[in-house]
Design brief:
single chain; mainly beta; four-stranded mixed beta sheet
Length: 332
Amino acid sequence: MNKKFLNLLTLAAILISCIPYNVKVNAASNYPIILLSCYQKTLKIGDSFYLAAVSSNGSIPTFKSTSSKIASVTSLGEVTAKSPGTCKINVKDKRTEISCKITVTKTKIVLSEKSISIEHNESFKLNVTTSTKGDITYKSNKTSVAVVDENGTVTGCKPGDAIISVKADSTTVQCKVKVKTPTVKLNPSSLSMYRGQSAKITAEVSSKINPVWKSNRTSVANVDENGYVTALKHGTALITATVDGIKKICEVTVKPPVIKLSKTSVTLKPGDEITLVANVSSGNTPKWISKKTSVAAVSQKGIIRAKKAGTAIITVSEDGAKAICTVTVKQK
């Protein structure tokens, strides 16, 4: 036998003792007197109590709610609040009926914030208090913009506006969520490079989201997912960093090198050799070519070997830049 029911029995005994001494209890009477432990009660959803009732004829009265959706009652008089509103618990014994007015108050919800502003991938915990101990549920009307978990933690998914609904019992309140457009800054905003060189572009993104990198001319310069740019040939390329629709551009110029030869003309005899030195501003190794290898040949180290009388043009080139040396071979 639980404690609540023992308390009910105790209360019933007290009620019986409260029946006025001059009230004559007639077992054959069709109109017994019914006493209740209370005649009106205000409850919160989920609350319950025992409504004690005794009849002057000693019989057990019956209990019935006028709206079990608002408050239900058991055969033993246990009343449970279900939803906001007002109803009556009617207690009846034969032809006598008396009631207890039940008022169930609406659940109150208090949010720590009615509106929040966050970045993509940023989270914020909503603190919620309610007037009852009922379960709290959360729902986002735009999960593509912001999502919320069962604990009330809101996470931004992309720039835009969303509404988080917080529900307890039949009460719902809302929190407006704005996922901000990120700010993006590139450092540097322009680059000057030679073929074969690499450089890192740093993206400062307020939302901490990694940008998507892209080159508009991959034959000139390409870029990897971390912002490392590699120059491939002279020209201009635009490197774009995109975060949530926001684009920032770094202009990359791949410069043609400047080539200077130690000599621009030489005179040799058949069988002679000479080494030309090419100073290339890019630091890359140039390519050597002789227009008349029958007169003079050249190695890829710049060593010229005269073969027979005549004139040959030695060309040294790197990424579109050229320098020449005229070789005259005379007979001994």
